[in-house]
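Hi everyone, sorry if this is the wrong subforum. Our group has a chain we'd like a structural model of before ordering constructs, and none of us has done structure prediction before. Sequence below.
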Amino acid sequence: MALAHILGFPRIGAQRELKRAMEAFWRGDIDETALRATGSALRERHWQAQADAGLDFVTVGDFAWYDQIAGMLALLGAIPARFGVDPRQLTLTGYYALARGDQTHFAMEMTKWFDTNYHYLVPEWTPGLRFDGGVDWLFEEIAQAQALGHKVKVALTGPLTLLYQGKIKSSLTHKLDLLQPLVEGYRTLLARLKTCGVEWVQIDEPMLALELEQEWVAAFAPTYAALSEVAPSLLLATYFDEVSDHAALLRELPVAGVHLDLVRGAAQLPAFAADWPQDKVLSVGLIDGRNIWRADLDAALAVLQPLQAALGDRLWISASCSLLHVPVDLAQENQLDPELKSWLAFAMQKLDEIAVLKQAVNGQSAKAEVVSSVAASLSAARIAQAQRQASTRIHNRLVQQRLQTVTAAQAERGADFATRIVQQQARWELPAFPTTTIGSFPQTADIRKARAAYKRGEIGHLDYLARMREEIRLVVGKQEELGLDVLVHGEPERNDMVEYFGEQLWGYAFTSHGWVQSYGSRCVKPPLIYGDVYRPEAMTVGWSSFAQSLTDKPMKGMLTGPVTMLQWSFVRDDQPRATTALQIALALRDEVCDLERAGIGMIQIDEPAFREGLPLKARDWQAYLDWAVRAFRVTASGVADDTQIHTHMCYSEFNDILPWIAAMDADVITIETSRSDMELLDGFGRFNYPNDIGPGVYDIHSPRIPQVADMVRLMQKARGVLPDRQLWINPDCGLKTRNWPETYAALANMVSAARQLRATLPAAAQEGEPERRSKMA
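Answer:
Right subforum, don't worry. Here is the predicted structure as tokens:
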């Protein structure tokens, strides 16, 4: 009999209950007891859903108060020593200081989890770091699940992936120098889990989907030999790509089972299925944990049936990866039309799909009513698949025709950067170290209320327009008061940097409760790209034109780029992603050209997800980077040479793709660098990055207000890497989540830092002049 399970469930709650409780705790509106009660209720609800669906285990350990990596560090006791915290005495207040920082400590660095839009806190590896135990939160959760009568499978991040995803922060020679004490910490943890009556531990090693150095591959056998001596049965889980390069290793490791992602790595199954060891479970992920389209259950059964015949109860059925990356429950949706809704499956529905597959392959022993239910489910899935394929709403003749006419010239600016930047400086006369922000300003409760009231029809269009213009006036006025050099309109009208644009494009659809955790309490509601993408009318021109009318300083038009619009959406799976990206690029190109015609001479096309889309294996990079760069250039290249194109990227490692970032040919790129203490900028210097760059000088995700000296120190480090003529000064990211007192104080310090830096330059380079670049060279 095949078994069914999941690797993890969304922790935030169908109504974002955990987000709201976290933020209430941070504000001081509730205490730790109340916050813990919210977490307990959510876990209980999610475990019951797994049990009710018919899964054979409930997964414990996928819950986190902010991030599962930070939770793993707290469990092991591997808290960075700079926080001065005893891991065994860690409170949630102390835990959140790791993630958000405080007035004394910088927050831990944050970056993307493999190729997802989920952000994790980066472990800090230092000599002598301890792994001898921390908080007991996991054991409390296990006891809670067991008291409710559930059969528990515990999920942990594996030791090698944890080590690999961290960063050396001191004199440590190599990450693997910490492997022995880390393994001892895991042995203690696993032995304790065994005494708690836990029979199975899912231990996640997604790093196996990467192209690894041999020393890391060689570390698996001794590591798991040591762990298996004391552990419950271990299910080693891989996901996000195929791992057939390591098929021989995974067959031989002393673990009780292996999980494979057969959505992103369908071709790897033959390398594992033939003569799979008699003492190992094979868990197959056939339900997509990264997208929201209803599964083709017939196709999945065609894979499962021969496996079940060969493996029997050694076959486990699951999703490809944790369901953390999809919304919680389609039943919450009330604004999707019935046809489109019938094509979808969120986390709750994916539980049912997994259970149906299990029941179908075990059908010979099922009761008649179960057989009938399974048949009905398979029939419904079959009908939904056929209706989606035949739907006339997917294809747009105008879009298809335009795709056929795209030329190479449409991806080229008129002149090279060296020529353009001289024209741009002559037009704008910016000072040395120009100051700007990334786009958004604080979204107050009043702004959100006005947007919601307009969406519900409680206020009319003119009232809404007046309210948003009032906010834009405020934002522009404050920027001029602060002395910023390049302004933004603050984006009060935007709910989300992808959702706002998707709502105005054909081929996109939106949910009302399709929230997914991005990091901590930050949740996003990714659009659904179900059909060809087309822009029926201008989306931002009115807002930007109004903002420019309020000032003589340059006003940036703000757009989300085509790759990010793709990556941060649930994308149709019936055509290549490259084709969808080009459709979006053409729609955005029209917006860029309309902004320029309206007198907006600086246009920022944000691509924070550019690296996120990179395949996990370097051998697959070239194809992605070719179409991703092309999409950006098609978006940006319809303007005159003296129109300045900006882009922004954040919370990613860029060094290995710098040639392609340079190939995007944005006149100015702003990047997040403060959490890494300008470390991310080093690669740009080694590469001799040719265009202008704004390294972020303060972390907008922390309530900490950076001092002038902090920012000057960071910029002095930047000056040691790149010439002064290339450098701008800006925050790490948008200011949407901050409040006005924090924002104003931080920006005032940033402007003061820029003035201090200008004072170190020759007199002729301190003021805005068309010749600034040559004089500063």
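For your construct planning: The chain has two domains: 3-390, 413-776. Confidence is low (pLDDT under 50) at residues 768-777.
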